[in-house]
Amino acid sequence: MKHPSSSRPTLLALALLLAPAAQALEPTASSTAQTDLVALHPCAIVGEKNKDKIPDYQAACATEIARGDVQLVPSEQVRAFLDKEPRKSCAQTKKPSECLGRLATATQASRAVLITVNPGQLTRVSGLVVNPGGEVVDQKSIQIRSRGQPQEELLRTALTRLREQLNLVPLKITPLVEPTPPPLVAAPPPAQGPTQGTAEASGPKPSVPPEALAMTQEARRTGRTWKTPAAYASAGAGVVALGLAGFFAISSNSDMARSNEFYKDNSYPTLNQLPEIVSLREKASNKRTAAGVSAGVGAVLVGAGAYLWLNDRPATPAPGVAALSVGPQGVSVLGFLP
């Protein structure tokens, strides 16, 4: 039974509204990870002669792009912006990147994305990612030739591959907070001569904690302060983070290789195998993100450890000073040791 063409826009609007909810059900690399909003332009369908299929393609495109770690701007805000544009679309302008930059600025999104779909025996999908300044952040294209599978399945597979390769969300690294150094309590200088007796008569000496006194004596003996152990701890944590980055990278490559086995020998997976392929590739994408974050944090920790260690090296003692004096009654030498 063929639905009336007037009901297609309602279906597209419903898919755009449900896309953020579908994204919330997908597993992420970390439950506390935060991602920036993405303004998804309505997918542009080209080369399709049957106008009744265009809303279905747009709904499938919006649903597929919203999967994974992507949080979309509500579709009402995107439509409100496009209604003010002369052509009601950024895809039909001479400079789509400038229009998408204005869309990102108007919706306070970190990225604006335009997906172009050309269905057929050779299905092509392309993505354009632009930041609020109108600069192109990423641009990729995927094409898949049909081997007898339905057009909807072919389109879904192409959109999945495109979403995994597009740089939709900027990577963020939590800044490293340097630990606050513990306070050092210096031992009071010993009094000499009559001053010592006066100090003892005036009152009791202030008590110094044994731990602080031992720390001060150790710092005087070795020339090192709290920065040296902090440097060792920071460098050790950095090495662990780099090891985790390597683990995530190897595991991500393993998951991607497993998903590619379904396409081995020019074969094509069945409809029942597509959820497993999507799951493997989403895991690979999440692990690549975790590997990048771990590598960045590890590099920062190792660099901070090296800086603290170099900054805590003992200073070279100043050379001594000597003076020679010659007089009528003899020669004298005056020296000051360092």
Explained architecture:
This protein has 338 residues and is an alpha/beta fold. The protein folds into 2 domains: 6-166, 3-Layer(aba) Sandwich (Rossmann fold); 171-177 and 227-314. It is built from 9 helices and 8 strands. It has helices spanning 8-24, 54-65, 75-83, 96-106, 151-165, 194-202, 210-222, 227-260, 274-311; strands spanning 37-40, 44-45, 71-72, 111-118, 122-130, 136-145, 321-327, 330-336. Strands 1, 2, 3, 4, 5 and 6 form a 6-stranded mixed β-sheet that branches. The chain is elongated.
Order of helices and strands: HEEHEHHEEEHHHHHEE
What percent strand? 5-15%
Mean pLDDT: 75
Count of strand segments: 8
CATH topology of the largest domain: Rossmann fold
CATH class descriptor name of the largest domain:
Alpha Beta
Transmembrane segments: 230-250, 290-310
Signal peptide: 1-24
Biased composition (Pro residues): 180-192
Keywords: Membrane, Signal, Transmembrane, Transmembrane helix
Short summary:
This protein has 338 residues and is α/β, with parallel strands linked by helices.
Task: Summarize the SSE layout with pairings.
Layout: H1 8-24, E1 37-40, E2 44-45, H2 54-65, E3 71-72, H3 75-83, H4 96-106, E4 111-118, E5 122-130, E6 136-145, H5 151-165, H6 194-202, H7 210-222, H8 227-260, H9 274-311, E7 321-327, E8 330-336
Parallel strand pairs: 1-3, 1-4, 2-4
Antiparallel strand pairs: 4-5, 5-6, 7-8
Give the key terms.
338 residues; alpha/beta; Rossmann fold; six-stranded mixed sheet; 9 helices; 8 strands; disordered N terminus; signal; transmembrane
